[in-house]
Amino acid sequence: MEKQRVIRHQPGPIAQKLIRSATKLMKNKIIDINAWKSAKSYNAHLQKIHLEKDLSHLNPLHALYMDTQHRIVDFAEQFSMT
Predict the structure, then answer these.
(1) CA 75 – CA 70 distance, rounded (Å)
(2) Could you give the CA distance from residue 78 to residue 42 in angstroms, rounded to a whole number?
(3) What percent of the chain lies above the pLDDT cut of 70?
(4) Spatial distance between the Cα atoms of 36 and 42, rounded to a whole number of angstroms
């Protein structure tokens, strides 16, 4: 049996920007409590929205795809605000 080679690709420009932003945020020594509270309440709001969506009319795999897609968009939107 032949071993598969792992090919590592360079992340794209958007992924590189996200990585730089995450690295910068992780190095911060000070936590803004007001921003943390705001993010926590916004996250609760997003969870409520996701739970209210009725995807039962879709194929289960497509519903999972749609929910994941919406969560990724929400994450990218939140991350780009920082």
Answers:
(1) 9
(2) 9
(3) 95
(4) 10
